[in-house]
C-alpha cells in the first residue's frame, strides 16, 4: 500500500461505517451521498492558504483539498448531494480564514475544513462565477481579522453598470448587495472586484475593447482610473500574500504584474543574464500552464516543458528560463514550499483505490542559479536583517515608529537600500531612511534607521493627498535593495505590517485633587432628566457612588468657570496633556450646568453640533454616541450647516477655544462622561468617566429675590407711615375714645391677673 494510503483508507472506512452527527447537509446515522467536484478551466490551478502553509486546494479535472501539503494520499474533494448544487462545477475558490469558499454552479458554498461542515451562503440572489478576498496572517488584531472576513462575489463578464455585486464581512456566510459610487456611469464589462487594503480602496476592473483599467472607490483615486493595460483573454488574477499591493495577471499568452494594486500594470520581461530577450511573455511565444507566487518570488510552468523563475522586485519583475526538462503534464501545478524551494505536483490515480497520491518534483532554485550557463550575477549584499521582519506594529495619529536594520555589502560594492510603503494615498505614511556606516571585523556595515510617521503630521503633504486620514487602515513597509540581482535568493526583503489605527495601550486620565470618600448621590427632580433632554423629572433620583471606579471627586467652586485637565497615558506612563477637542455629558442626566461660550462667541462659521442633535441621529448607540467618527467642527470650512442659532451654548471644550463649564448655584456631585471627538488626535475612542464635587453655593431662597425685596420695602414704608400717623390720630376725638377703651381694658386685665396670682 502506498505511503499514507492506510490513513486515507481508515478515514474512508470510518466515514462509511460509523454513525455520524447531524449537521448542515448531513443525514444522521446514514451514509452521505457525495458529488465529486471538478474545475471548469482547461488548465489546472493550485491555491495555497497564505497563513496556514500546509493547507492547499488543487483545482483540475479532480479537486483535492490537503491539510498536510499532499504528504499523504487524498480522496477527491466532494460536496454533499443534499446541498443540491446540481452540476458540481467549480469556477472560483478562496480561503477565508478557517473556511474554504467555493463557487459551484453559480452559487457560493462554505466549507469549514476544521469542523468538516458545509453551508450554503445566504444573500446572493443572482448567479455569480467568482469570489475574491484576502487574508491577514497576524492573529489577535481586530483589523487583521476584518481582512480575512471580507469577501466579494460577482459574475465575471457582466456589464459593469448593471452588475450584481455582493459583499460579505462574515467570511462568506452572509452576503449583501454592494454598489460602488458612480458604478452606473462606468462602461465595460466586469473583470473583477477586489478590496485593496494596501490602498484602502475597493477596485473594480473594467474591461472594454481588449483594454482594462481599475476604477477605485475613494478619494483621491476615484477622480481618475488606473492606467489601461492589454487584456487579451480572460486574465486570472492572483493577489500576492502580505498586503503589499502586488497583483499578478495571467492567462496562457500573457503575464503582467502590478506593485500598486492595479494603478500601473506592466508586462513581465524574459531575461538571459542581464540582457532582456523579450519584453513580454507573448513575444517569447510560450504558453503558460501554471503560475505560482509567494511574497517575493514568481515561477511559471509552460506547455513547452520549460520552467521560468523570477523575483517580485521592489522596482521591476523579470523571469529567467531554466534548462529544458521533461516536467510538464496536463495535470501538473507549481507550489512554493519555502523561499527558493519549489515543487511540481502531479496527481497519480490508483486503479485499486479511490485515493490519489501526488508525485512531487522538488526544485532547489538556489542550486540551479549557480549554473554558469544562466549568467547570473553575484549578489552585491551579504546580509540584510532587521528586528522588525514579519512583525506587526501600530502607529496612532501623531505617533512615530522607529525601525532599524543592518546591511553588509560585498567588498567594493555600493548597493542602494530602498524603503517602500504600500499605502501612501490613504495614510500619507512616509518612511525616511538614515544610513550610518561603520567598519567591524574588516567588513563595512550599514545601520539603517527608518522613521515612520503620517506625512500630514509632519506638514509634508497636501491635505487632498490622502483619502481619509481619519479612517484606520493598514500598510506594509518593505526594505529591499534597488535592482537586486536574482541570485539574492536568500536575501529576501524585510517586511512588516503597520496598523495605522488605535494604540490599545492609550487611555485618558482626568487630573484631580482628591477629597474624602462619598457613597450616595441624590439628584432632586428639578435638576435632572433621565432622557437627557433638559426637562425636569417627576421624582428624585438616588444612586450609589462607585468609589472603586471613580475614586474621589474633583473639587470645583460653583462660581468659577471650569474645565478638566485631560492627560494622555500610554502603558502606564504619562505622555501629554490633551489639548484636542472633547465633550462632556453628565451620566445621570443632571442639566444644572452650561457653558461659558455661545456659538457666535466661539467664532463658529456653521451651526455647531450638540448632544441633542447627536442623540437624534444616534439610533441604537444610546445617549453617549458623540465621538471622533461623527464629530463635525463648526470651524471646518467644508461644514455647510448655516449658523441659525448663534446664541446656543457651545458644548465643545478644548481645541481652539477657551470654552468652560459654568455650574448653577447648586452643591453636589456630578459624574461626567468625557469623549475625545477631535478626529485628528487619535484613532482610538478615548473615553472615560470621572466625578466632580461642586461646593460653595448658598441654599436657594424659598421666594424669588424680587418678591422679597418688594415685601421688605412695603413693610418699611408701612412702618414709617404708622409711626407718623398714630401719634397724630391719638389727639383727635376718635383717637381719645380708642385710647379710653385701651385704658379700661388694661385696668380690667390687671385686676384679673392679680386675683389669679393671689390664688396661686
Automatic annotation (TrEMBL):
Keyword set, alphabetical order: Cell membrane, Cell projection, Cilium, Developmental protein, Differentiation, Disulfide bond, Flagellum, Glycoprotein, Membrane, Signal, Spermatogenesis, Transmembrane, Transmembrane helix
GO biological process: flagellated sperm motility; sperm capacitation
Lineage: superkingdom: Eukaryota
Residue span, CATSPERD beta-propeller domain: 35-361
Compartment(s) where it occurs, according to its Swiss-Prot or TrEMBL record: Cell projection, Cilium, Flagellum membrane
Primary residence: membrane
GO annotations of cellular component type: CatSper complex; sperm principal piece
TM segment ranges: 707-727
Domain CATSPERD/E C-terminal stretches: 519-734
Keyword Transmembrane (UniProt): yes
InterPro entries hit by this protein: CATSPERD/E (IPR028751), CATSPERD/E_C (IPR053814), CATSPERD_beta-prop (IPR053813), Ig-like_CATSPERD (IPR055451)
Tagged with keyword Manganese: no
A Pfam family that the UniProt record links to this protein: Beta-prop_CATSPERD
Membrane topology per record: Single-pass type I membrane protein
Domain CATSPERD Ig-like residue range list: 381-500
Coiled coil region boundaries: none
Family stated for the protein in its record: Belongs to the CATSPERD family.
Role of this protein: Auxiliary component of the CatSper complex, a complex involved in sperm cell hyperactivation. Sperm cell hyperactivation is needed for sperm motility which is essential late in the preparation of sperm for fertilization. Required for CATSPER1 stability before intraflagellar transport and/or incorporation of the CatSper complex channel into the flagellar membrane.
This protein's name: Cation channel sperm-associated auxiliary subunit delta
